[in-house]
């Protein structure tokens, strides 16, 4: 990490920055927000996410003021609907970025009860498995070339220019594929949280990058060895969930001896996920506005905020 770019806050220092009241840090049914093998406590919500919501609010309010002034300057008037404020959340497989996105989503819904807050992942823009097989990319799933970047960038453009009823594909982790002929719809949300391993990447042969559409970006970070451990533990949980579900992608593997399944998981981590992390995900960390750093048991010990 380029430390000169960031101001580091210990957890206690970050907690002291909190501005908002109690109402924004009370979440019901925390367990439903937590991804497989992630950890989240009421203290995490208060000490980490409470100040984060305040920081997001500051950036959001400044963005609204700038949009108002810009429209007034260029158009002589202010449109009723401001451009969607987009938050990008990035990090490795199994690091807990989905939990971060879901918690932030629910807290922002509380903080802005009169605004529409939406959350989506970029998984839906992976090519379907059939197309990945055709391109010989199944072992590169999750790498930049496995995404339909043209479609994703066009989607983000429509979000930013205020398109109505914008559809995007649905990805299912249980079938490990795009769900055929099913879509989610966005309809001009005030704030959109976009979560995915590729949100800060700089794909080749594109003049427009995903990050061009973000007003704020967050990277969830942890040591490689910890992420490897969390990945294996999450793999175990997938095995347990798939054992009695023949339609689940992991069902066949769930019937293997567990040591054989672990060997397979370690190989996938070593040859695919670790390579993707080191070559494509980690290099984007220094492009984030905020870095959430985790230690053992997904405990957040520090927050890094870009100085400019």
Principal-axes geometry comes out as: globular
- What is the rounded distance between the termini? 16 Å
Across the major sheet, the strand order is 1-9-8-7-2-6-3
Characterize the quaternary organization of these chains. Answer: single chain
* Total of helices: 8
* Helix and strand element order: EHHEHEHHEEEEHHHEE
Strand portion = 15-25%
Q: Calculate Rg over CA atoms.
A: 20 Å
CATH structural architecture:
3-Layer(aba) Sandwich
Supply the number of structural domains.
Answer: 1
Query: What is the CATH homology-level superfamily?
Result: P-loop containing nucleotide triphosphate hydrolases
Instruction: Kindly name the structural category.
Output: alpha/beta
The level of helicity is 25-40%
Mean pLDDT: 91
Number of strands: 9
Low-confidence stretches: none
CATH structural class: Alpha Beta
Largest sheet: 7 strands, mixed
Q: Quote the CATH topology.
A: Rossmann fold
């Amino acid at each position: 990490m380029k430390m000169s770019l960031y101001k580091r806050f210990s957890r206690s220092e970050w907690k002291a920055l909190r501005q908002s009241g109690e109402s924004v840090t009370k979440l019901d049914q925390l367990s439903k927000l937590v991804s497989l093998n992630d950890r989240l406590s009421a203290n995490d919500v208060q000490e980490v996410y409470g100040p984060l919501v305040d920081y997001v609010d500051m950036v959001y309010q400044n963005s609204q003021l700038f949009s108002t002034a810009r429209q007034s300057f260029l158009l002589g008037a202010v449109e009723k609907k401001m451009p969607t404020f987009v938050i990008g959340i990035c990090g490795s497989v199994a690091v807990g970025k989905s939990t971060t996105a879901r918690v932030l989503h629910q807290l922002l819904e509380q903080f802005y009860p009169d605004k529409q807050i939406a959350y989506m992942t970029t998984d839906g823009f992976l090519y379907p498995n059939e197309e990945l097989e055709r391109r010989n990319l199944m072992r590169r799933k999750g790498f930049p070339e496995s995404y339909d970047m043209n479609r994703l960038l066009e989607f983000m453009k429509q979000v930013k220019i205020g398109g109505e009823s914008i559809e995007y594909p649905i990805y299912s982790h249980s079938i490990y594929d795009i769900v055929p002929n099913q879509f989610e719809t966005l309809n001009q949300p005030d704030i959109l949280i976009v979560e995915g391993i590729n949100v800060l990447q700089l794909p080749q042969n594109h003049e427009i990058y995903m990050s061009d559409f973000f007003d704020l970006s967050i990277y969830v970070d942890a040591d490689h060895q910890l992420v490897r451990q969390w990945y294996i533990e999450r793999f175990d949980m997938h095995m347990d969930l798939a054992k009695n579900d023949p339609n689940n992608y992991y069902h066949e593997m769930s019937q293997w001896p567990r040591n054989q399944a672990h060997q397979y998981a370690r190989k996938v981590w070593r040859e695919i996920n670790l390579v993707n992390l080191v070559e494509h995900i980690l290099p984007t960390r220094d492009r984030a506005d905020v870095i959430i750093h985790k230690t053992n048991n997904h405990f957040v010990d520090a927050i890094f905020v870009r100085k400019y």
